[in-house]
Amino acid sequence: MAAELRDYIAVYNREWGLTSDTTDAFVAFDSVQKSYDGETLVVKDLNLSIGKGEFLTMLGPSGSGKTTCLMMLAGFETATHGEITLAGKPINNIPPHKRGIGMVFQNYALFPHMTVAENLAFPLEVRKIGRSEREEKIARALDMVQMGAFGGRRPAQLSGGQQQRIALARALVFEPELVLMDEPLGALDKQLRETLQFEITNLAHELGITTVYVTHDQTEALTMSDRVAVFDDGRIQQLAAPDQLYEQPQNSFVAQFIGENNTLMGTVSKIEGGVAEVTLDGGEVIDTVPVNVSQVGERTLVSIRPERVEFNKDRLHPDAHTLKAEVKEFIYMGDIYRTRLSVAGNEDFIIKTRNAPDQRRLNPGEMIEIGWRPEDCRALDA
Amino acid sequence: MSGLPPYASTGQRAWYYGFRVICGLIFFFLMAPILVIIPLSFNAQDFFTFTPEMLRLDPAGYSLQHYEDFFTNPDWQQALSNSVRIAPAATVLSVVLGTLAAIGLSQSHVPFKGAIMAILISPMIVPLIISAAGMYFFYSRVGLQGTYLGVVLAHAALGIPFVIITVTATLVGFDRSLTRASASLGANPVTTFFKVQMPLILPGVISGGLFAFITSFDEVVVVLFVGSAGQKTLPWQMFTGLRDQISPTILAVATILVVISVALLTVVELLRRRSERLRGMSPG
C-alpha cells in the first residue's frame, strides 16, 4: 500500500513538475513531530520536501502548526521527534546562527538603534566581509527593493511597507539559499500587500532562492506560491499547486478553507464509472466526483465553488442534474454579482456571476434552477 | 497643559487649582530641608543657624571657610578618597551582576523565577540594620570584615536590586524577535548580546547603575558595620562629624553631594533622551 502510494506520488509530482523525492530535496522534513508540553502534539508526523528554488507556502489557521514548522526550520524550536535536512544535511543539531537561513519577520525586527545601512551591514560584518565588498552588497540589496536612497535613515523614520522592504533586503543581502518568511505582510494595508506580494515573488524567482512562506491569508498563498501546504491540526491536509488546491481540494477542510465554497450534505447512493451519485438530505439527487468517499451509504459533504454554479439553462449540459433554488438576496459587488440562494435546505448557497453586458440580475423571491458540471462538484468527507 | 475646558464645573475648577496647591506643598516638603542647607553652608560662623548678618544679606555673614575646611582637612580628604574608590567599584559590580540576573530572569524557561527575584531584591526590602548586622557576622567569619573588598561587596549587594528592577523594566519592552533576527543573520549569542540587546537596554542599565552609585555614595549603616576606620566613607565621616563636633563643614559636604547628584541625574537623563530619540522610541 505504502509503495503504491509512493509510486503514485512520484508520478503525480512528475506530471505537475514537482519534486518530492527526498534524495534531491533541498529542504526535507522527515516524520517531524513537535510538542511543547510533552503531551499534545502541535505538529504531527510531518513529511515535506521542498525543491531547490521552489516557493512553498505554509497556509493554515492559527494554531495549525505552520509557524512551529517554520521555527523548527529556522532553529528557534527543536523537533521533538524526526529529522529536518537542509541540502542533504541534518540540521537538528545546528544552532540558528550557523544555518545560514535568511528570515523575514511579521514585525520586521529591524534593529532600531542602527540605520538601514547598518542593519544590512550586520550579517556581512558577522561574516567578516571586507568594507568595500560590504558596501557594494548593501547598495545592490537596497536597489533590489527600491530603497537605494534610504541607507542613512533609521527604521523608525520609515513606513511599515518601507521597513518590510528593508527587512527583506537584510534577509537577502548575505545571499542565503533559503529564505523563511513569517507572515511578512500581515501588518500592511491591502494595496501595499498586493504590491509587495508581487515584488517578493519576482525577487525570489529572479534570485533563484528557495522560499518558505507562512501566512493565514489564502489569497496571498494562491497568488505567490509554486506549491501550498495547507495545515490544520498539526498535519498537512493537502500539498498542491494553487490551481489544483482550489479546484481539486482533497478533503472538506481544504475545500472550506481555500476560497469560498458551497456545501450540501448527503449520502452516497451509487458509485459508478468515476461518478458518485449523492442523495441530498432533502431527497434531491446530484452527480459528483468521489474524492474521499468509497462506499454506498457513506455520509458526504458535497462542495461546489460559487463561480461554477450555472443558472442559465443554455449553458448547462442537457442531462445534467439540476436543483430548484429560491433567490434570497442579490449583492452588487462591481466586477461580480453575488447572489444568495436557498438550495436543498442550505440558506447560504452563494453563486457568483461576472458583471457582463448579457448577464441577468436575479431578483429576491425568484425561483430558478441551478446546475453544474459533475466534475466541479466534489463529494468529500462529511 | 491646555488648562481647564470651558465646560468645567465649579468643583472641577476648585480641584484644578487645589491639585496644584497640593503638588506645590509636596514639593516644598520634599525640597525645603535640602535647599535650606545650601545657604547655611556658606555661614561665616561655626553655627547651624542663620546669623543676623546672613539674614540681612550682608556679605560679611558669608564665607567659604567650611568648603576650605573640607578640601584641606585630611580626615575629610581620606573619606572622600574612600568614597570615590568604593562607590564606582560597587556600581560596576552591581551593574554587571544585576544586568545578567535580569536577563536570566526574563527567560521563560527559568524555574522558581519569583523566588529568585524575591531573594535578589530582598536587600532593598529588609531593614538596612538587619542586613548590616547579618553582613557583619558573615563577613567576620570569612575574613572580609574591615576590608575594602568587603565594603564593595556589601554595597554591590545593596545596589543590585536597583539594577535588576530597572533592567527588567526595559526588558519588558524588548522585542524578542530582534534576537531571533540577529541569530538568523548569523550572529552568535555573544555578538547578539553586545550588538543588539545591550544597546537597547542600555537606558535601564545606566539608570540602575546610577541608583547603585548613589546608594553606595550615601550609605552609612552598612559601612559602619562592615568597614573599619580604613574604609571611612563620606557619609560615615559626616555621621561622626555630627556626633562629635557639629561642624558646619558637613553642610558644605552635603551641598557638594547634592550638586553632584543633581548633575549626575541631569547628565544621565539627557543621555537617555538622546539615545531614545536616536532610535525613534519617543517623538521628543
Automatic annotation (TrEMBL), chain B:
<feature type="transmembrane region" description="Helical">
    <location>
        <begin position="86"/>
        <end position="105"/>
    </location>
</feature>
<feature type="domain" description="ABC transmembrane type-1">
    <location>
        <begin position="80"/>
        <end position="268"/>
    </location>
</feature>
<keyword id="KW-1003">Cell membrane</keyword>
<feature type="transmembrane region" description="Helical">
    <location>
        <begin position="21"/>
        <end position="42"/>
    </location>
</feature>
<keyword id="KW-0472">Membrane</keyword>
<keyword id="KW-0813">Transport</keyword>
<dbReference type="GO" id="GO:0055085">
    <property type="term" value="P:transmembrane transport"/>
</dbReference>
<dbReference type="InterPro" id="IPR000515">
    <property type="entry name" value="MetI-like"/>
</dbReference>
<feature type="transmembrane region" description="Helical">
    <location>
        <begin position="117"/>
        <end position="139"/>
    </location>
</feature>
<dbReference type="InterPro" id="IPR035906">
    <property type="entry name" value="MetI-like_sf"/>
</dbReference>
<keyword id="KW-0812">Transmembrane</keyword>
<protein>
    <submittedName>
        <fullName>ABC transporter permease</fullName>
    </submittedName>
</protein>
<feature type="transmembrane region" description="Helical">
    <location>
        <begin position="151"/>
        <end position="174"/>
    </location>
</feature>
<dbReference type="GO" id="GO:0005886">
    <property type="term" value="C:plasma membrane"/>
</dbReference>
<keyword id="KW-1133">Transmembrane helix</keyword>
<feature type="transmembrane region" description="Helical">
    <location>
        <begin position="246"/>
        <end position="271"/>
    </location>
</feature>
<feature type="transmembrane region" description="Helical">
    <location>
        <begin position="200"/>
        <end position="226"/>
    </location>
</feature>
<comment type="similarity">
    <text>Belongs to the binding-protein-dependent transport system permease family.</text>
</comment>
<dbReference type="Pfam" id="PF00528">
    <property type="entry name" value="BPD_transp_1"/>
</dbReference>
<keyword id="KW-0997">Cell inner membrane</keyword>
